[in-house]
Amino acid sequence: MASAIVTGATGITGSAIVHHLQKDSSYKKVYALSRSDPGYKDPKLQHAAIDLQGSADDMTKTLSGISAEYVYFCAYMAHDDPQELCRINGTMISNFIQALEKTGAINSLKRFVLTCGFKQYSVHLGNAKQPFLESDPVLEGEVGGETWPPNFYLTQQRILAEAAARSKNQWDWVVTLPQDVLGFARGNFMNEATALGLYCTVSKALPGSELPFPGCKAGYFAFNTWTSANLHAKFCLWASTAKGAGNNIFNVINGDTESWQDLWPRLAKRFGCKIPNPMFPNGGTADSKGYKDFEPSTTRMPNKHPLTARAADLGVSSDPSKEESPTLFCQINPEKWAARDDVNKTWAQVRDKYGLDQKAWEKATWDFLTFALGRDWSCVGTMSKARKLGWTGYADTWDELVDVFETLEKEGILPPAERLKGDF
Ligand SMILES: NC(=O)c1ccc[n+]([C@@H]2O[C@H](COP(=O)([O-])OP(=O)(O)OC[C@H]3O[C@@H](n4cnc5c(N)ncnc54)[C@H](OP(=O)(O)O)[C@@H]3O)[C@@H](O)[C@H]2O)c1
Fold first, then answer.
1. Which residue's alpha carbon is nearest to atom 25 within ligand 1?
2. How does the average pLDDT of the chain come out, rounded?
3. Neighbouring-strand partners of residue 289
4. Is 358 exposed, middle or buried (0-12, 13-18, 19+ CB in 10 A)?
């Protein structure tokens, strides 16, 4: 029977992995690491409070007596500056591995599974060649006549590969690349589904119960892929022992291709809202007016689209669209929407009626919605690489979204949809 160490155990990806390890009878012990205490009751789960920003020496004290065959690294600290993001997240994984080396726990290790994401393909910088393949060239530094910012996933991957080589390959690694994760973590609302659920709830309770799409028209029609936190956890457990998976990077997405044009009307129906027609009365493109009296936003990014770097090998050097800078346009800026008086009064009314968690509102990541709904490019990857090695997992994106909403209802973050529909 195996043991596992999970870092970032309270986060969206980490908590799902802990949950699946707990259910998996082939694991006898799970060491869950984070700064906050998740309050486990099962003796199979042992929490250790650790600050991964500390030095390797500091961590050896906490990690004393802890060893495992499998490490699932999901700790993550956000930062707006790409250099700082690399430094912080690079130091966390580097010091953690050094601490495992110092305690000798590294000698038990068989595979280290690191969670990264689609920023590997520079989706945060604009439109890139699609579908994304794990073998696609990465953008960092000088590529294709442009200077690209450092990418913290690549920093982490270099550190991990160097450490595995240092061990004379006694252990190997797997890197997973999920796209926008649909999941739930208590006390952590960095989650597209939570912000969306709150937006739909308050929209239902506002006069008229309309559900306008906050983002841009092109984004409404673009194609996207999502990752269920549960499916990602199952993938990580599969990849930790899958033959031929070692020292490889894998996309991890649900397996369907979705779009807001498909999901938005379903959201409206679930929350009892009306789909406005026209959805984009002022065009829904950069610099256009907002939806009704809502405030829009247009953000031009300083870089060119990542596709630019591939222009020559894709044969699109003469395509003028590659010259455009990536733009995020929201006909209703979610951050400004969440700060409006009428929206806050309506939220307070809904919160008090159903006894909802005020922290959910305060911690909702409206800025993430601004990006996810405001971009006008698709984000589609393929699962072919993992499937060729035997991965058969699949999740339906709409079903996963509903599953998260139901969890949010049970946790007192969203009201029961059926009651909301009857009450407003
Ligand atoms: N969420 C998404 O939609 C998404 C999509 C694609 C890729 N990803 C990637 O998935 C990876 C994991 O992200 P996530 O979304 O699961 O993160 P998350 O939900 O924000 O959780 C972060 C975890 O890291 C822990 N942590 C943060 N700082 C720490 C520190 N100094 N010491 C110890 N633990 C610390 C947090 O616990 P404490 O605060 O209790 O310490 C928490 O458990 C990241 O690389 C992220 O970019 C996420």
1. 8
2. 95
3. none
4. exposed
33 Cα: distance to centroid of ligand 1 (angstroms): 11
The pLDDT of residue 273 is above 90: yes
Q: At residue 190, does pLDDT exceed 90?
A: no
* Amino acid, res. 153: Y
Per the domain annotation, does 387 fall within a domain?
Answer: no
Whether 3 and 31 have beta carbons less than 8 Å apart is answered as: yes
**Residue 372: pLDDT band with limits 50, 70, 90:** very high
- CA 125 to each of CA 69, 273, 303: distance values in angstroms, whole numbers, following the listed order: 36, 33, 7
Q: Cα dist. 285→224, 282, 331 in Å?
A: 19, 8, 8
Shared domain check, 113 and 12? yes
**Given this model, what pLDDT does residue 146 score?**
87
CATH number at residue 82: 3.40.50.720
Nearest ligand 1 atom to the CA of 38 is 40
The parent domain of residue 176 ranges over 2-181+227-252
Q: Which of 4, 9, 247, 245 is nearest to 105 (CA)?
A: 4
pLDDT digits (tens, 9 = 90+) for 89-109: 999 999 999 999 999 999 999
